[in-house]
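Person: Show me a sequence?

Helper:
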Amino acid sequence: MSILVDNCNHWIGFHIANDLLENSYTVDGIGDENSDLLMFLGRNSSFNFVGRNLEKQYETAIMIGGQSDTEFKSGQTLIINPKSTDRVENRVEINTPLLFGEWMPMNEEGFYNNNTFIRFDSDYFQTEAIYIDDFTKGLIQWLKMKEFPSTLEVRSEKNKDNKHVKLENTVYIRDNRPMADKVKNVLEHYQLYRKIYESL
């Protein structure tokens, strides 16, 4: 199955595209062709960077952040953390909690989320954050579902007692490894690729 990832050089889009490729999907990507992250995706023969005006029909398109100026046709469009209310045909909104992982805007103390700095040692991070690989593994499983609700709320299993969430539209992600191990991996990656992080 060929999937379109719009904004594939956003750090979340990069992880989604990369995990789709690792699970034998063919991925077409739209984004900034000058991004350093594209060199990692471009090494895979199942990845194709495409222009903004597409004639191809996709079964599924995944957009990071919401409406873009790209013209495409798809059976369903999954929008991760939509920022606009623009209508997209066959739209599924996926609202995530605080995601973190490699290639996000960060330093040794924490990272930026919507222009707010989140410290790795903060209570907010410890209770809300989900590692990007845990999220993308769930997303790949959800792609196998025959039908999506129009809105899907993704939450950390640590917040399962939240009374304000509609259970029929909610998916809880379990932490399989300690949070400290995941943060350590991200910090090691940051040190290894620091110059690329500074250019993103």
